[in-house]
Design brief:
Elements: E1 2-5, E2 8-13, H1 18-21, E3 28-34, E4 44-49, H2 72-77, E5 85-87
Antiparallel strand pairs: 1-2, 2-3, 3-4, 4-5
InterPro entries: MINDY-3/4_CD (IPR025257), MINY3/4 (IPR039785)
Organism: Opisthocomus hoazin (Hoatzin)
Region (Disordered): 50-72
C-alpha cells in the first residue's frame, strides 16, 4: 500500500504472496514499511497477529492514556485487519 500518514508518504508491503490468495495466511504475518525519510535508516519490520484478544491487553491502563495510543501506521493496518496486534520488532514506533 502507498500510505499517507501524518503528511508523510511511505510504502507498506509484504513479501508473502500467499497473503493474496490464502485467507489462512492472514492469521500471523509480516509487513514492512519504508518512507525514504532521512530519519528512517532501515525498513521497519512489523509482525501482525490478527487473532489477538482484547482481554490480553493490560487492563490497568485507561484506554485514553498515552500508553494506549497507537501509532498512525498501526491504525492504518487496522483498517484492513480490525483488532490486530502489531509488533514493531525492536523498531521504535513512528508515524
Amino acid at each position: 500500500w502507498l500510505c499517507g500518514v501524518a503528511r508523510r508518504h511511505g510504502v507498506l508491503f509484504g513479501t508473502d504472496c500467499l497473503l493474496l490468495s490464502d485467507w489462512k495466511s492472514e492469521r500471523f504475518f509480516h509487513l514492512y514499511f519504508y518512507s525514504g525519510q532521512r530519519a528512517q535508516t532501515a525498513t521497519a519490520h512489523l509482525t501482525v497477529d490478527t487473532h489477538s484478544h482484547h482481554w490480553e491487553e493490560d487492563r490497568r491502563e485507561d484506554p485514553g492514556s498515552p500508553g494506549k495510543r497507537r501509532p498512525s501506521l498501526e491504525m492504518a493496518i487496522r483498517t484492513k485487519w480490525a483488532g490486530a496486534t502489531v509488533s514493531w520488532n525492536s523498531t521504535e514506533p513512528f508515524f
